[in-house]
Amino acid sequence: MGTPAPVGKLDTLVSLCKRRGFIFQSSEIYGGINGFWDYGPLGCELKSNIRQSWWQSMVRLREDVVGLDATIIMHPAAWKASGHLDTFSDPMCTCKSCKKLMRADQTWEMLADNELGASLTELHANGQPDSGRVEGWCNGRGKGLAPGLAAVRNPDAVLAAVGTRLAGTAFRNFVSLLASENPAALVQPCPHCGGELTEPRPFNLMFKTIVGPVEDPANVAYLRPETAQSIFAQFLNVITTSRQSVPFGIAQVGKSFRNEVTPRNFTFRSREFEQMELEFFIRPDEAIELICGRVATLADNPDLSAPQENWGWQVWHKYWVEQRLAWYRRIGLPDASLVQYWQEPKELAHYARACVDIQYAFPFGVQELEGIAARSDFDLTQHQKHSGKTMEVFDEPLKLAAAKLDEAARAAFADKVAAEWAGRGKSADDARAFVAKLFEGRYIPHVIEPSAGVDRLALALLCNAYAEEPVTDDKGKTETRVVLRFSPRIAPVKVAVFPLMKNKPELYAKAREIFGQLQRRWNCFWDESGAIGRRYRRMDEAGTPFCVTIDFQTLEDGTVTLRDRDTMKQERLSVAALKEKLDDSLI
Questions:
Q1: 493-586: which CATH topology?
Q2: What is the separation of C-alpha 394 from the centre of its chain, rounded to a whole number of angstroms?
């Protein structure tokens, strides 16, 4: 058996996805629309299996998480409260030559991926570009690839001005020198034409729409850029009706929309995508200290196998990081392909205490699959402030614990919390007001947020599953087998059923009978055309873990041939034994 390896080139996977019905470009017959993708017969099954596995892991198998399915369009005030209206933007710039708009922080990455970047890299020649080659490029090939580049528009003046500075300089400096009319200023070039870019300016990523028949500013609404805010907005309704108490979580799977200016890397960065988010609400550490006497931190090296009442936010955050990594392993992504990136303090949002990005090594680089953030009480506090509705919960154990303290102990605790808050740059007065609420048994919960993308994960699973290997048939002929080695739990089709021959009524009827039995349990595929070997190859490309062939021996003793996708080994089993084996492998 060959060793599965991530697909080396994205183009190979894109071709397979279209050929086998995983992913198509949206509105392709009209030329397509950038940043939008449709999932075909196999693709929608793959996404469905991802969602179901996530929901089973995060909701069904837990007693402390419930679900929500909220609307895509919310009241615009929710996005004002969350900060999205004011701050949900990317730095954008426009090329002064070709007029294309792009994200300012992605221009070098875009250049590295296109033909212009490849040509400039070759010209750079490891930091020692030949001046004659550079001049020849500017007067020749550069005119087609980079008509806006300063050195292409005016090669004599630019090359004379930079002189020997091109030699021994880093690639970005080399390109910037060629892009600048002023040799004293390094210019960030347009990745499309090499032209000069404008200064970055903010561009809000939310899609606007109009609610109602009148196109009026008062009726402006937005397609949600994330699913999280509806969870916060419905927090009180959920906790009131679900009979849950903190700590507990609310999970949601649904579509989100971001007006990405430069969608790229196949489905990785799209304008319409699907999220799987959990908001897990926890007690503030100060409440835990009152209840338990001490807050458990990571310094205690806690056992993360089961939640404990004395866990502080640090331990809860680490617990969810480990839970999410374990799930990725269960669905087939190996540890070697996953990277944990712990954000530096300067990278964190102002309200976040910690954030870990779980990243995957895609063909186009290591990129984020999921973020697990400790978001403090920021979200619920903002919605309380803007809506006027309290987001506080009443915690009976907290009230009882506080009631046991005398006045001196209460004062000492308040002083301690005020000093800790002041050390983090927060108001001591706010700390004392917060403690007063704690003594009443009330607080706004803090939250740990694991947020993953269905589309990005589907792409990662496709990349990870793709493999090519040489196989030799009985006649000694060698060919390359393309196979998608999905985990059986995630594979779009679980079992393919083949009648050995379709023109033998008794054989055909028996195959249909067995197919019907399996179809009631698993997603199965019926294939009756072509040689058995060719049918196997089709199922290998679809990632189907098992193929069942009904032949003449089936009519004699009731056994079938089961073929394993990964090993290509075959075994004969009774139908009862087949069902038992499939149950063991697919659940």
A1: Rossmann fold (3.40.50)
A2: 35
